[in-house]
Amino acid sequence: MRLKLPERRRFIRIEAPMRIKIEGDGWVEEATTKNISPISMRFETVRKFNKSEILDMVMNLPLSGDKPIRVKGQVVWQEKTSLEDKSPYDVGLEITHIEDESKNVLLKYLCDLLYDSSYHSD
């Protein structure tokens, strides 16, 4: 018999690869999300960040038209994707701030992905 541990996550993560821009003081890094929820995301990047570092990010969702979604988040964890020296990092980010209008667009986008995916049963 397998013991089922309680799920610690409050929201399901949706595998949604999308390009994002991370903006720092005098630099911009492009990255790709691996999964996303209403309160967090996981992305891959070549840049090393510090735990608890605050990042400004820009996402262009298909439903947002030309208006970018601006998100502020805190790095929760970061690890190399492999043992190779030049391998990229996976980064876990908690979304700490998003404007209400942008939040609604993001939530609608995630709901649309959820209903159009294999998460629902037929």
List key phrases describing it.
single chain, 122 residues, mainly beta, Thrombin, subunit H, six-stranded antiparallel beta barrel
Characterise this structure.
This protein has 122 residues and is mainly beta. It has a single domain, classed as Beta Barrel (Thrombin, subunit H). It is built from 1 helix and 6 strands. It has a 6-stranded antiparallel beta barrel with strand order 1-2-3-6-5-4. The longest helix has 16 residues. The model has no long low-confidence stretch (mean pLDDT 84).
CATH superfamily: predicted glycosyltransferase like domains
Count of distinct strands = 6
Count of individual domains: 1
User: What are the segments in which pLDDT stays under 50 over at least 5 consecutive residues?
Assistant: none
Here the CATH topology equals: Thrombin, subunit H
List the total number of helices. Answer: 1
Secondary structure: helix percent: 10-25%
Strand order of the largest sheet: 1-2-3-6-5-4
* Major sheet summary line: 6 strands, antiparallel, barrel
